[in-house]
Amino acid sequence: MDSFAELGYFGLFIAAFLAATILPLSSEVVLSVLLLNGLSPIALVAIATVGNVLGSLTNYALGYWAGPKVANKWLKISEEDFTRAEQRFTKYGLFSLCFAWVPVIGDPITVVAGILRIRLVWFVLLVTAGKLIRYIVVSYLILQVD
Hints:
The protein is mainly α. It has one domain. It is 77% helix and 0% strand. It has helices spanning 2-6, 8-19, 27-36, 41-75, 79-92, 106-115, 120-145. It is elongated. The model has no long low-confidence stretch (mean pLDDT 88).
């Protein structure tokens, strides 16, 4: 994570993008380091949000164009995780996209949204809202500790 933090804003963007895919990264760690080093909280939240949403859009595109079997193979999402995400999506509808940031369930939800061909405008609005709120809360908490 230090190598991402050394790249400043660009490193946060890359970490946030990759964290929204199946890679086991935590953009919050990079965000925290950069906040504690005095970089602009508003810029950091904006950059992290954009990077993370673009990562989720990548998952959406894989689901949309590749379908469940290929997405499972590429994203290494187990059938069980995929089924749970599909059930959550069916149960909670579009608003489940607000929780695309949640570890373990977030990535499969974004893939399922693509497979189900959820309208892109709703996908972007709801995923962005959830991720933005998460980064604002994390930033606020980190800055309170400092």
